[in-house]
Design brief:
By secondary structure, the protein is α+β, with helices and mostly antiparallel strands. It contains three helices and five strands. It has a five-stranded mixed β-sheet.
């Protein structure tokens, strides 16, 4: 995984993994502002030719790292990130269920976003 660079495109709502100049995977997310600020991953996608190389896990780990550095939480809606967080509780603190519900409500209210 040392040849993978992860970049946060906050404006585009994507955490992207690159191998050289090639985009090999990404997490689509949004920033929830209320009832508390949180990063909310919605989809994790790895290009088929790059599956099984740990890219999705590296993206999830980095998303939680960004949240920790910013002093906020991750409220995962993406099934992959939910499973990854369950396997890595030391790196992925659980979000308050009310915050996850608020993230789901936001997503329902913005149907064209994802």
């Amino acid at each position: 995984m040392s040849d993978i660079e992860i970049r946060d495109d906050r404006a585009g709502g994507r955490l992207e993994a690159f191998a050289g100049d090639e985009l090999v995977g990404h997490i689509e997310y949004f920033v929830l502002e209320a009832p508390a600020r949180a990063l909310v991953p919605v989809h994790t996608i790895v290009e088929p030719a790059h599956e099984g190389k740990g890219i999705a896990g590296s993206l999830a780990r980095e998303l939680y790292g960004i949240a920790a550095r910013e002093g906020i939480v991750v409220a995962p809606l993406c099934p992959y990130v939910v499973k990854w967080a369950a396997r890595h509780p030391e790196d992925a603190p659980a979000a308050d269920p009310a915050l996850v519900r608020a993230a789901k409500d936001w997503l329902i209210a913005h149907p064209g976003r994802f």
